């Protein structure tokens, strides 16, 4: 009788495990077609979106703090209109590149643009996502699943986001909608330590069909902070083949005669297809580990032709204005270890190791974009002044060729720019979490909007498009600051 | 950043590493300066293959905004 009971229990366990099979994270692609799938070229702009203006948004990581801040920037962008028809700048956005917390905002906008401003706060910003994750981890019916070697906390996160935020929508739904912006969700490939993006251009290398993957999967990979969530694993079907046609830029990039940065990037991309590297699986973690601001992809597109959505290739024909707006929710929390002689403990050290390099790398990327824009502008000026010098001796003389005139604007929005010291310090001490008090979320929204509308860089960018442009007024209610900013306690003070 | 002029008698679209880079000439007929990253690049023209060579790979480096590299294609005789 006891044996029979055990057998019945065993059968029940097996049945339960089978019923709760691991969700397939990515599907095989039978035949690669560079014209099909979730690609920039397969999305169209809104009517009247002038091709001469190329707008990129980059949303950083930072949990709900980053999601709320980037949402506030979007609320501000909705109010930025220009020209005689008062066109909203938001309709001109071509690409949104995002990381971690910022990926929730970007993905929701891509999927539900028409209801985004009404629904996203309730669907994500004001919800306690951490409690939802914990509830799923503690649910007895998930214990058996979590015992499986191929099921982990990241799968619970994907299920939660699928069911409660993104309505099980797939990248195929984004292709069907066919509307810009092209949203690029960024994760980090653990083997390469490099950016891995959820686009068909990247998935071609895995011989995988991104259209059958849910958007929640991309968001979960992008925000799989090490330790809190397990890595998300994708299957690489390259060994089975899909008739992959290596793009010419990748062929050119693989030449060892290239500068190191270009050939290394090409070799890294080729590693997914290269049979000698035997990469049957790709393990992904939070995108912030490779680039916590989401600007590395845009930098490649702005400065090279080595991607399908190269902006460099479009300069002059048709692009004449480039605007990059970065919502950077990085913080600078005060540290309790600065007030004691004892060395920081293991938890503090691990926390620093996980997040310290992310912040440094983010700063570098913002600077790379700025330096690139400055260099482009200086090249154009240098050419114009050379021509003027030549014309002093020969009025008809011209330098050979025409360099297309393009103006560049980098707009970085971060808490550093908040003038009110109390508010700045308050924002810089908000934690990285997927559950923030309502007042803090609202304050982050107001701060994003206010920083955008008060930005001098935005004013310059808009006046290049519309000389009469004036920003809307943006103030933050002091009572909101009082409610959201309790007396600060240094991070780590409870050690 | 590197600078290139693609010489061809007609106005044609230029492909650099398979990516469309716009035309080799402005509508006025003046040569247009293309910008590419430093390194190896394969140049072609879109449209009828009435030109030689059909493609060429060049190491583009040490150019200047006032001294672009010339990549020349000729019409087939």
Give the topology.
The complex is a heterodimer of chains A (495) and B (77).
Chain A (H helix, E strand, L loop, with lengths): L1 H18 L7 E2 L24 E7 L3 H17 L1 E2 L4 E2 L4 E7 L1 H11 L4 H10 L3 H10 L1 H8 L5 H12 L6 H7 L4 E8 L4 E4 L2 H5 L3 E2 L5 H8 L9 E4 L12 H6 L6 H11 L10 E6 L9 H8 L17 E8 L17 H48 L13 E8 L6 H8 L9 H17 L1 H10 L12 H7 L11
Parallel strand pairs in A: 2-5, 2-11, 5-6, 11-12
Antiparallel strand pairs in A: 1-8, 3-4, 6-7, 6-10, 9-10
Helix pairs in contact in A: 2-3, 2-4, 2-16, 3-10, 5-7, 7-10, 13-14, 16-18
Chain B lengths: L1 E6 L5 E4 L2 E5 L9 E4 L2 E7 L5 E2 L3 E5 L8 E4 L1 E2 L2
Parallel strand pairs in B: 1-8
Antiparallel strand pairs in B: 1-4, 2-3, 2-5, 5-7, 6-9
Distance between the termini of chain A: 53 Å
Helix proportion of residues of chain B, in percent? Answer: under 10%
> Which whole number gives the mean pLDDT of chain B?
95
Radius of gyration of chain A, in angstroms, nearest whole number:
24 Å
Give the CATH level 1 class of chain A.
Answer: Alpha Beta
Query: What overall geometry of chain B do the principal axes of the alpha carbons give?
Result: globular
What class would the helix/strand composition of chain A place it in? alpha/beta
CATH class of chain B: Mainly Beta
């Amino acid at each position: 009788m006891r044996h029979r009971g055990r057998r019945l229990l065993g059968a029940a366990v097996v049945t339960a495990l089978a019923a709760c099979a691991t969700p397939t994270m990515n599907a095989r692609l039978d035949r690669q077609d560079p014209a099909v799938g979730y690609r920039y070229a397969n999305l169209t702009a809104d009517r009247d979106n002038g091709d001469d203006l190329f707008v990129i948004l980059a949303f950083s990581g930072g949990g709900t703090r980053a999601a709320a801040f980037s949402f506030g920037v979007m609320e501000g962008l909705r109010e930025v209109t220009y020209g005689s028809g008062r066109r909203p700048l938001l309709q001109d956005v071509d690409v949104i590149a995002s990381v971690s917390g910022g990926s929730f905002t970007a993905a929701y906008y891509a999927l539900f643009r028409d209801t985004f401003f009404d629904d996203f706060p309730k669907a994500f910003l004001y919800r306690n996502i951490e409690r939802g994750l914990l509830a799923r981890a503690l649910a007895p019916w998930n214990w058996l699943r979590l015992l499986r070697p191929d099921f982990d906390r990241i799968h619970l996160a994907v299920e939660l986001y699928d069911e409660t935020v993104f309505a099980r929508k797939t990248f195929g739904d984004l292709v069907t909608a066919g509307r810009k912006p092209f949203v690029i969700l960024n994760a980090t490939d653990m083997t390469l330590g490099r950016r891995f993006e959820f686009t068909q251009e990247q998935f071609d290398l895995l011989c995988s069909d991104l259209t059958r993957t849910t958007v929640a999967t991309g968001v979960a990979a992008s925000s799989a902070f090490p330790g809190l969530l397990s890595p998300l694993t994708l299957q690489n079907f390259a060994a089975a083949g899909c008739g992959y046609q290596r793009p010419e830029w990748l062929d050119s990039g693989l030449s060892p005669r290239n500068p190191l940065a270009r050939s290394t990037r090409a070799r890294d991309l080729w590693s997914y297809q290269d049979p000698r590297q035997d990469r049957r699986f790709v393990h992904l973690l939070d995108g912030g580990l490779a680039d916590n601001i989401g600007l590395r992809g845009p930098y490649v597109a702005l400065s090279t032709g080595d991607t399908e959505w190269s902006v460099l290739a479009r300069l002059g024909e048709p692009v004449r204005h480039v605007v990059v707006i970065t919502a950077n929710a990085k913080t600078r929390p005060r540290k309790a270890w600065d007030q004691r002689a004892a060395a920081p403990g293991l938890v503090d050290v691990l926390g620093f190791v996980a997040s310290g390099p992310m912040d440094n790398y983010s700063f570098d990327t913002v600077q790379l974009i700025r330096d690139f824009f400055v260099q482009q502008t200086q090249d154009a000026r240098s050419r114009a002044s050379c021509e003027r010098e030549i014309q002093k001796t020969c009025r008809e003389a011209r330098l050979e060729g025409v360099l297309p005139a393009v103006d560049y604007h980098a707009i970085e929005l971060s808490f550093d720019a908040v003038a009110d010291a109390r508010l700045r310090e308050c924002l810089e001490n908000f934690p990285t979490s997927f559950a923030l008090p309502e007042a803090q979320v609202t304050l982050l929204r107001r701060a994003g909007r206010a920083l955008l509308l008060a930005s001098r860089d935005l004013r310059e960018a808009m006046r290049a498009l519309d000389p009469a442009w004036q920003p809307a007024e943006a103030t933050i209610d002091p009572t909101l600051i009082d409610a959201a900013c309790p007396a600060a306690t240094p991070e780590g003070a409870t050690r | 950043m590197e600078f290139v002029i693609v010489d061809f008698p007609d106005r044609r679209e230029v492909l650099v590493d398979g990516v469309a880079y716009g035309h080799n000439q402005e509508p006025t007929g003046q040569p247009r300066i293309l910008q590419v990253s430093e390194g190896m690049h394969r140049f072609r023209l879109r449209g009828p293959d009435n030109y030689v060579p059909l493609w060429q790979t060049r190491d583009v480096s040490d150019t200047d905004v006032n001294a672009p590299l010339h990549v020349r294609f000729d019409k087939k005789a």
